[in-house]
Specification:
Layout (H helix, E strand, L loop, with lengths): L1 E3 L2 E3 L4 E3 L8 H9 L4 E3 L3 E2 H5 L3 H5 L10 E6 L3 H12 L5 E6 L4 H4 L11 H14 L4 E6 L9 H10 L4 E5 L14 H7 L8 E4 L5 H11 L3 E4 L9 H11 L8 H28 L3 H4 L7 H9 L3 H14 L7
Parallel strand pairs: 3-4, 3-11, 4-6, 5-6, 6-7, 7-8, 8-9, 9-10, 10-11
Antiparallel strand pairs: 1-2
Helix pairs in contact: 1-11, 4-6, 7-8, 9-10, 11-14
């Protein structure tokens, strides 16, 4: 069993990474149903929460079936981040998570996300203020460093633990790398194997198969893995990894019936959350991922992303199931 403060997770928990425009409640629902042990919201702007911006406030929506669930915050101003953490706490998540890893310019150029990797004292001070402000466990997600010359994650991890964080997730790339090149797990292992560290250490980056997850556990000794891009359109990856770790056997790839069923569920949950129009719009970005690898799916995909009618979309999903019945996706 792995514990984040008072929160108990199974051995080697599988975490859903916070992903902008992806990790919303409908997506989290299908991931939870398919084996995710701990999930995080999309990252939420501290400035947006303080301004009571509708988009940021909507991201605070969490549901009982998601627990344990963490709300992730990002920002560049210490006082604003402290205030935002207090606002997020009122939504009653299980965890407050701080994003020190987002590499995109729109975030980093505002002194937030991975930008804090260039100012470790400020990162530590910001984290300490949030830990002191809230009653919930505080976790952090970050990267190895800003670039190849500043891979200081071992020291950073010690300092963050010393001021009271309850767990640390590390993406095995620098900010300069963005998402390019292979993730370097050796430094994640160095943090985990540091005798000074006693909080859970979760690894993130390139976990895209059961075999890769097993390797991360056996070779690097992390307490669990965080899965991001590999879960988009493929929430089955959590159950596939768990089954493989427990039995050494691989589950069959999801059938077209399973793909359509999860896609339909995702759509209906989105409508339940945002209304018919909003739910249909929110789900459009996911269709190509759910049916990736199917031959001649382009025409169906075009119809799905241009239709505004729920009945028409449901009919199209039924037609896809009938057309590809018995075919396993790649």
């Amino acid at each position: 069993m792995v514990k984040i403060a008072h929160i108990s997770l199974p051995d080697f928990p599988l975490l859903l990474a916070p992903m902008e425009d992806v990790s919303d409640p409908p997506f989290r629902y299908v991931c939870k149903k398919n084996g995710a042990d701990l999930m995080y919201t999309e990252f939420i702007s501290s400035e947006g929460l303080i301004r009571d911006a509708a988009k940021s406030m909507k991201k605070l929506d969490i549901f009982e079936y998601e627990r344990p669930i963490g709300i992730q915050l990002f920002g560049g101003d210490i006082e604003h981040m402290r205030e935002a953490a207090l606002i997020a706490e009122q939504a009653k998540p299980d965890i407050i998570d701080i994003n020190y890893g987002c590499p995109v310019k729109a975030v980093a150029c505002r002194g937030a996300g991975a930008a804090l990797l260039q100012d470790i004292p400020k990162m530590v001070s910001m984290t300490e203020e949030i830990v002191k402000a809230v009653k919930l466990p505080v976790t952090v997600k970050t990267r190895l460093g800003w670039d190849d010359n500043t891979k200081n994650i071992v020291d950073v991890a010690e300092r963050l633990q010393d001021i009271g964080i309850s767990a640390l997730s590390i993406h095995g790339r620098t900010r300069k790398q963005m998402y390019k090149g292979p993730a370097d797990w050796t430094l994640i292992a160095a943090v985990k194997n540091n005798p000074r560290m006693h909080i859970p250490i979760f690894g993130n980056g390139d976990v895209d198969s059961p075999e890769r997850a097993l390797m991360m556990r056996e070779r690097y000794g992390v307490d669990g893995v965080m899965i991001g891009r590999a879960s988009i359109g493929y929430p089955w990856i959590f159950n596939e990894i768990r089954h493989f770790l427990q039995t050494g056997e691989k589950l069959s790839a999801p059938s077209i019936e399973q793909r359509v069923d999860v896609c339909r569920t995702h759509l209906l949950k989105a409508i339940e959350w945002k209304g018919t129009k909003g739910g249909i719009l929110e789900t459009r970005r996911h269709y190509s991922n759910y049916f990736k690898g199917l031959d001649n799916i382009k025409d169906y995909r075009l119809k799905l992303v241009t239709s505004d009618s729920l009945d028409e979309i449901l009919a199209l999903l039924n037609e896809i199931q009938d057309t590809y019945s018995g075919v396993l996706s790649v």
